[in-house]
Design brief:
Layout: H1 8-19, H2 23-52, E1 56-57, E2 76-81, E3 90-96, E4 99-106, H3 111-122, H4 124-139, E5 143-145, H5 163-166, E6 171-177, H6 187-198, H7 200-209
């Protein structure tokens, strides 16, 4: 399957779903979702796979078991690549009525991974490498995000030159584009590919310094 862009019909589908997040709407428009959202995302993932690895496409259904929001369907379609054996550092892409989002980094770290992350940030060599990469990404237009502590992490100094990075419990970069004509063309593939390439150094740092958790998988 060739990726030709994200059709406008897919964005219109999500506009409708935001207004009527119900089983009735979903059932009536499921064919639109399959043809104009999921199929293009699968084609995009297939095109990127030789360079970045096989992507997982997320299901459209929300897990509402522990949420006050009981709307049943996600108002976006996402896909993620978690390179085998690297532990931390992933690539993400998402389409919605708001447009296209690309991101990379670590969205979920266990306690042992957070501990290794902070030791590396405090290290004069590895910490400086990460700081330089974050500075570069920000200058290139990336938003640096992630869950953060309000206070200084235990065992670290408030005078640490990389205190802002030390406070992070997760760390990722993101870029967002509102809908424009190029989104409906193969140019969208090139935008995602170039953006993911730009995140390669951040993901490599996370893989090298944080790695995989040694804790047992939590039941969900």
């Amino acid at each position: 399957m060739t990726f030709d862009g994200f059709p406008d019909a897919g964005l219109v589908f999500y506009e409708g779903l935001e207004a009527d997040n119900s089983k009735a709407y979903w059932t009536a428009h499921r064919a639109t979702y399959e043809a104009h959202v999921r199929a293009p995302m699968a084609a995009l993932a297939e095109a990127l796979a030789p360079e970045f690895g096989t992507a997982k496409l997320f299901r459209p259904y929300r897990d509402v078991r522990f949420s006050n929001d009981k709307t049943p369907y996600k108002t976006h379609q996402g896909a993620v690549v978690n390179p085998d054996g690297r532990g931390a550092g992933a690539w993400y892409v998402q389409i919605s009525a708001d447009g296209l989002t690309v991101a990379g980094g670590a969205w979920r770290l266990e306690s042992d991974q957070v501990a290794r992350y902070r030791r590396a940030v405090a290290d004069p060599v590895q910490g400086e490498r990460l700081q330089q990469e974050i500075t570069r990404l920000r200058a290139a237009g990336w938003e640096i995000e992630g869950e953060r502590l309000v206070r200084v992490p235990a065992g670290f100094s408030a005078d640490d030159p990389r205190l802002d990075l030390l406070k992070h419990k997760t760390l990722h970069g993101a870029r967002r584009w509102t809908p424009e004509d190029w989104l409906h063309t193969p140019e969208a593939l090139e935008r995602v590919r170039d953006a993911w390439r730009d995140l390669r150094s951040l993901n490599a740092w996370l893989a090298d310094n944080v790695g995989a958790t040694t804790k047992e998988n939590r039941r969900r």
